[in-house]
Design goal:
homodimer; 379 residues; alpha/beta; 8-stranded parallel sheet; 16 strands; globular
Chain lengths: 379, 379
């Protein structure tokens, strides 16, 4: 059922079929290295989020550079990572329902799987599943550090839940999930710092209250690509869960960096390759990439090779490049690169990564074709 | 690589894993029948669009009720339909590039495949591919009937392109593609009628100009779920390409019908089933279905079983049901049905349809589990 791949290794970029998900391998590898260096320097662990890439191949590259394991958002995603050889996976999201929890508990017989809870019902269901499978599952408590989504309140409510975990024979209290998702795309460093300062305060309070109750946190996890330097320097977070840094999307590029300039710690390494398939008006190039090729929740894609071109009017399989403000214009049949607005849900639309070596050189070539192994892993 | 299915036939609805794409089979079958009856009464042909369902299983049901074949939007989608046993497929979209055209021409050796062009380059590339494969390909010319996306201008430009097709030994001029996509979601019948009157006028002009040049149109195709009655009554369109009527999404339900009341010709037959996996605030149910489960281009999903509930704040794998205005509230662990904002790109996110019999009765049960065979078919 997966689609035939749009390329084969050795092919030149120009011959890749479209729409295709391209990885600029040189930029991607530099991004991997920059994050590995940053966490090593800060003295914290990296557990990158696999919801970005959904690929054990990429996960192994992260582990090779020092990551302690991966985060996943769903059990089916975790299964794809474990089956692909990743030995330590944290499901950073509440799992409710016997079917999913049976799968999680069974998976924990094959690798370390860390589960996340924010309710007594979650503890009860997870303990029952672990018992059914004779498994011992590590569990973290999610606290609300300001995003008002999931997570119990910091302090005593978190302690009560941790104690409920500690009482279960098949569960082991392992720490806290303290991710501030809303902070990631606040545009200025000052806004992000204010949000993360609040998250740090709530997390510190909770770690202290747990300590007073005789419970220690092996994992205090959180952080994303937009804020990881703040959590890394906090003295309380010890595992960073950033994911998007490997690819950098158009929306993250709208953040400002620490000095107020561009957020350029990481490079754009993910592109969609598309073909101009209709051009009855010279100011409008219609391309073969629309709602089924890009996620639009964080804005349209950007065409970096045509300054002034604006992607607009997406429909299922069409998008229009408005070229009225662009001095350089593609022609009918030309292939164009686009930077997705939001990388994670865009990757999830594709079956294959096409890895390009020498993207910015004279002869870019296909080096690898990797499956997006956990694509569709919403269970 | 496809995900394990979320259900098995015979299971009760309540046991289906989430998020899952549910089809209310009773409503779906009534929708199929209503459209079949409407086109039979109008004396036109139906060639439903498979970009909605991407399933030859559903396509065969449409053909069994009289459809002459299917439309597809991409060659890979057409391949999935032909390989699934559909014998007559129209690719209602320009195909540019040797690799795709080789696939199209090769496919036309196995079934009738009708291609669509709007440029001399398109004709030239298609003719070359057909010659390489010793194929004879039926070709239609797309004209711009008011959507300003693809298509040559009506009248003489279309005639010139049709003549270019007719000169090619391996191509056969077969008619016109005249779809007015922008008209489908205009909210009132008056607005839709004005747009389609214009489309009909442009199409009539072109059919006459072709006739004067000695070229006849076997196919004059277009129409969608929002306007099909207008094209059916036009006297010029002879094939309707509606797709969404089988499922009806939340956005089509915002259209007004002919009498100014609700557009209720078709029933909602497609739902996403989701689980409340976090509920730390009684006015906010966090569900396991976000950007990777729904397309949001036409608005958020609707929760029909909880009046006043508002789906908001989607992230990759979370959505929040704001329950502050809702008197009935789901609890933690409950499963809820949601009607997608836009059916086509939502279906494209899933690997499986779970067909439910007796959805509105006391004991809804899983009757079928069908693959979304052409999911990801963007090539």
């Amino acid at each position: 059922m997966p689609m035939l791949p749009p390329a084969t290794p050795g092919m030149s970029l120009a011959d890749v079929d479209t729409p295709a998900l391209l990885v600029d391998l040189d930029a991607f590898e530099r991004n991997l290295k920059r994050m590995a260096d940053a966490v090593a320097k800060a003295g914290v662990r990296l557990r990158p989020h696999a919801k970005t890439h959904k690929s054990p191949i990429i996960g192994h590259k992260q582990v090779a550079l020092g990551a302690v394991g991966l985060c996943c958002q769903k059990v089916s995603e975790a299964a794809a990572m474990v089956e692909g050889g990743i030995r330590d996976v944290l499901v950073s999201n509440e799992v409710i329902g016997a079917r999913k929890l049976d799968r999680l508990a069974a998976l924990s017989r094959q690798a370390r799987v860390i589960a996340c809870v924010d309710s007594p019902l979650g503890v009860e269901q997870l303990a029952a599943a672990a018992a059914r499978h004779g498994a011992q599952v590590d569990v973290i408590v999610e606290i609300d550090v300001g995003a008002s989504r999931c997570g119990v309140a910091p302090g005593q409510p978190a302690v009560a839940l941790a104690q409920a975990i500690a009482r279960e024979k098949h569960l082991r209290f392992t720490g806290l999930q303290a991710y501030q998702g809303r902070a990631q795309h606040l545009r200025t460093i000052e806004e992000r710092r204010a949000a993360i300062d609040e998250a740090i305060a709530r997390t510190k309070t909770t770690v202290s209250a747990l300590k007073a109750a005789g419970l220690s946190c092996d994992i205090v996890g959180g952080a994303g690509t937009g804020t990881f330097e703040l959590e890394a320097a906090s003295g309380v977070y010890n595992e960073l869960q950033a994911g998007s840094y490997i690819f950098m999307d158009a929306d993250y590029a709208r953040n400002k960096g620490a000095s107020g300039g561009a957020f350029d710690t990481f490079e754009h390494a993910l592109f969609v390759y598309a073909t101009v398939m209709s051009m009855t008006d010279p100011a409008r190039a219609v391309i073969d990439a629309g709602l089924k090729t890009f996620a639009f929740d964080s804005g349209p894609p950007i065409a970096p090779d045509f300054a002034g071109a604006i992607y607009e009017r997406p429909s299922d399989e069409h998008g229009s490049l408005n070229l009225s403000q662009s001095n350089t214009r593609p022609g009918l049949g030309d292939k164009v690169r686009l930077i997705p607005g939001h990388c994670d849900p865009t990757v999830n639309l594709h079956d294959w990564y096409v890895g390009i070596r020498g993207m910015s050189g004279a002869s870019p070539v296909v080096e690898s074709v990797w499956p997006v192994a956990a694509r569709g892993g919403v269970f």
